[in-house]
Specification:
The protein contains two helices and nine strands, in the order αβββββββββα. The chain is α+β, with helices and mostly antiparallel strands. The chain has an eight-stranded antiparallel barrel. The chain is globular and about 60 Å long. The termini are far apart. It is found in: Secreted, Extracellular space, Apoplast. Its main location: secreted.
Amino acid sequence: MGARRFTPILLFFIFLSGSFAIPGKKIKQYQPCKHLVLYFHDIIYNGKNAENATSAIVAAPKGSNYTILAEQNHFGDVVVFDDPITLDNNLYSKPVGRAQGLYIYDRKDIFTSWLGFTFVLNSTDYQGTINFIGADPILVKTRDISVVGGTGDFFMARGIATLMTDAFEGSVYFRLRVDIKLYECCQSKNVIDKGKNHAIDRYQIQRTVEDKDEDS
């Protein structure tokens, strides 16, 4: 009786150990369906640079100055931005779009922020928007945030954006390198409609040729 009970248990553990010992099993590596690298430049308003500023403090701890980021890792500051996007790291390069959104300094004990923003792209290469959201531990060299959607050429996009602080000048200017890898890429409605129209045109041409052949 005891031997009968022991046998199924033994077989179970043999099967379990074999399942963990499969040699050469590889984890599936996903390849991005679209990859691009862009830069955006943030110049915060400090009370003296209204003409050049691209961002401004819109909320701050009680008693704070809205032209100076708060002490203690800027905790409590909310900054809204409308920053130029470029293909390279030159602030004076021709913009290909705007980065629009906000960042919130959300911790007292460490220099970090929370980001929510959109890339509004309008160039010969790209038309549309990409939406980003996530925590930004600024002192880490590279950090990832989520791509949660888009429009136009980036219709319903999903993926990861790797951020790197490419330049930093006090509390007035910083530049972010944004390495975007999309793992879900859908055709926009405009592209789909163009494809349908192209197929209809080809069908009409084919019918015309067939009708001419029948007449002859």
